[in-house]
Design brief:
Helix content: 40-55%
Radius of gyration: 24 Å
Number of strands: 10
Order of helices and strands: HHEHHEEHHEHEEEHEHEE
Oligomer: single chain
Number of helices: 9
Length: 299
């Protein structure tokens, strides 16, 4: 990794933490550090499942518990078991908590304004555009790819979303009963695997990989949530699946797709896949692709 890039990231982090007051125990002039203030903001008006809150902020469970105990002691939140499952705890703002959150909201606006006020119009536009780009790239760096069972709830959520989208986009709709859907066993080790992308603990994409004996590896059911498109997840899925297939000794990786998925077709072309003759009878496919990912062993 480039040392100059690492130095730039560290310098950026120092500048931002100093400028927005993260180093102070009394964040935004209130009697609490930024950790507690951020937790109040994320809990929101509707409350949050503590586990989801922890995953959203990527915080250690012990640290979140300490923050919640402090906020509870100040009368700003309540933490109670969920009626339907007492193992799951929910946190909600009290009236005092909502009032404190409103104060923090107003002071956050003031802080943002203080960052922009010294700049001219062009500089403000440059700064906010740069911030949007940094936020997008940081979100991309936050996404995790995890191997899960195809029957895992996150996998099923992604597949339902995928089927709903292609039902709307395909010229004649989509009927899973007509498609050559892989059964779950084909996407479980050792015959395959299923990846789920998660952003802040929430599933935002999926991709399956078939690893059949005596045939090329095959990508199936790759999908990225509309809210997470533009983060490079499609290309990241392809790279990860290619690496895993090559590691298992496969020399060719293939996939098929529908003509309506023009962005995906462009991605496959730019990722080194070549269009080939049809290698299956998938009724919803119009394009078939292959890519050589390994070097045959010399005789």
């Amino acid at each position: 990794m480039d040392k100059a890039q690492i130095d730039q990231v560290r310098q950026f982090n120092r500048t931002v933490t100093e400028r927005v007051g993260v180093l102070h125990d009394h964040y935004l002039g209130r009697d609490r550090p930024i950790g507690e203030a951020r937790l109040l903001w994320e809990i929101g008006e509707e409350g949050q499942d503590v586990r989801q809150l922890r995953e959203r902020l990527a915080l250690d469970s012990g640290y979140v518990s300490r923050l919640l105990r402090s906020l509870e002691a100040d009368g700003l939140v309540t933490v109670e078991p969920q009626p339907r499952d007492r193992r799951v705890r929910a946190v909600r703002l009290t009236d005092a908590g909502r009032a404190e959150r409103a104060v923090l909201d107003g002071r956050s606006d003031e802080l943002a304004g203080s960052l922009l006020e010294p700049l001219n119009t062009a500089q403000r536009a440059r700064l906010t555009a740069a911030m949007a780009e940094v936020e997008r790239l940081l979100a991309a760096a936050t996404v995790t790819l995890d191997v899960v069972d195809p029957d895992h709830p996150d996998a099923q959520h992604c597949l339902r979303s995928y089927f709903a989208e292609i039902q709307a986009r395909f010229e004649n709709g989509f009927d899973p009963a007509r498609s050559l859907l892989p059964d779950a066993g084909e996407l479980r080790p050792p015959r395959g695997l299923f990846l789920v992308a998660r952003l802040h603990g929430e599933p935002v994409g999926c991709a399956g990989l078939k690893l059949p004996s005596g045939a090329p590896a095959e990508i199936k059911r790759m999908w990225v949530a509309p809210s997470s498109r533009g983060l490079g997840l499609g290309r990241r899925f392809l790279t990860e699946l290619e690496t895993r297939a090559a590691r298992q000794g496969f020399e060719v990786l293939r996939l098929d797709t529908n003509k309506a998925l023009t962005a995906a077709i462009g991605l496959y072309h730019s990722s080194g896949f070549q269009e080939v003759a049809a290698f299956n009878d998938e009724p919803y496919a119009h394009h078939w692709f292959e890519k050589r990912i390994g070097t045959p062993a010399s005789g």
